[in-house]
Amino acid sequence: MILKMSSTQDDVFPEEFCSNMKEVMQQRKIIPANQVMQLMMRHQKCQVKISVPLMTAIRHGNFMPDSIMSSHAFSPFSVGYFDATNSDAQHQIKLDLLQSDGEGLSKEMIDSLMKENCSLPHRFHRLRHQMNNWLGVLMIVFGAKALVVKEIQTWLKHMDDNEQSYDGCFKVDPDFGAKLLGLVARTFYQFAASCQTAQSPEEVNFGVLSLHHKRAEIEQLSFQANLPTFLIASQKQPLKRTKSDEEEDEPAPPKTPKKPRNKNTKDLGSVVKNQEFISAWDCKAVYKQLFTNKVIRTTPAFNAAGLVTCNKWHAQGHCFDKCVRKASHKSFQDETHKQAYAKWIKKLKEDHSKP
């Protein structure tokens, strides 16, 4: 049913697989089928190695996870960039996962993801390759005219036209690539679920595939999305908490009045006050509750160079003259970045005020 609904025809269902998928399905065993699909991917200029779990999912028509809490083989996370010159590809995947600025995944989680052949891109080049690989898989499984294929083609064109915006989003949020792929995967699963339950084309929710509004957010450097649930550490095994950039700005007090301050205490300099403080951004009363580690990592950029905005200066009204983000201790020079930050602050305050 999913294979049929993915067609661009809106009045009839295709009666059989597309030609590429038919050739894959003619292979009686997984390994020969994998080899055939690998060859097709190379013809489409895709730099990827098709895993056995992904091939098994395709052969059995298993396109959706049983639970949103778990990962799934048929997803853009399973088709990461493969460097044929690197004999230890698994080691490279682990290095890429570890290069998340120490803010996310534990070693145990990384080992688990490697078993699932899960690849998380942390820069534009890898994200572009991974999305192109996902396009190749969809074209083979559903055909070149399928709606799911056309949506990914739109993503790739948008990436080529807005590379600087994507780079900016990565600078603002190291998890941007994982969040974007997670969003693409979730919309596909929603579409697949709609196809599975539909009895006619009119009952299918075709609109769920369109993410043009999220592409507009990327252009404004205001992209908002959640990490896939399976990438978020379980509450039973919490990750070791690290200080946020904002907390690092607070000088550590001595343990007792009698003991001198630690010699390693960071010298932040003198307190400086924002004389052009915007009252609509005032978060002084709830600053500690509002700006958690997770929230701070999504702080929008101050300018086109990707400088992260200092929240103490703009949302609390003061900071220190040796702040690492001192360059943002002034009014926004770019109206686009100012509006993106204003929208972000407004949403934070609205979410906090909800019961």
Topology, please?
Layout: H1 2-5, H2 19-25, H3 30-43, H4 52-59, H5 89-98, H6 107-115, H7 124-142, H8 147-161, H9 163-172, H10 176-197, H11 212-219, H12 245-248, E1 271-273, H13 287-290, H14 293-296, H15 311-316, E2 318-320, H16 335-353
Antiparallel strand pairs: 1-2
Helix pairs in contact: 2-3, 3-4, 5-6, 7-8
Brief account:
The protein is mainly alpha-helical and 355 residues long. It has helices spanning 2-5, 19-25, 30-43, 52-59, 89-98, 107-115, 124-142, 147-161, 163-172, 176-197, 212-219, 245-248, 287-290, 293-296, 311-316, 335-353; strands at residues 271-273, 318-320.
Outline the low-pLDDT stretches: 1-12, 86-95, 99-103, 234-248
SS strand fraction: under 5%
Major beta sheet, specifics? 2 strands, antiparallel
Helix/sheet category: mainly alpha
What is the arithmetic mean of pLDDT?
A: 79
Explained architecture:
The protein is an all-alpha fold and 355 residues long. The protein folds into 2 domains: 2-231, no CATH class; 248-353, no CATH class. It is 46% helix and 2% strand. The chain has helices at 2-5, 19-25, 30-43, 52-59, 89-98, 107-115, 124-142, 147-161, 163-172, 176-197, 212-219, 245-248, 287-290, 293-296, 311-316, 335-353; strands spanning 271-273, 318-320. A two-stranded antiparallel sheet has the order 1-2. Helix 5 (89-98) packs antiparallel against helix 6. The chain is elongated.
List keywords for this structure.
355 residues, mainly alpha, 2 domains, two-stranded antiparallel ribbon
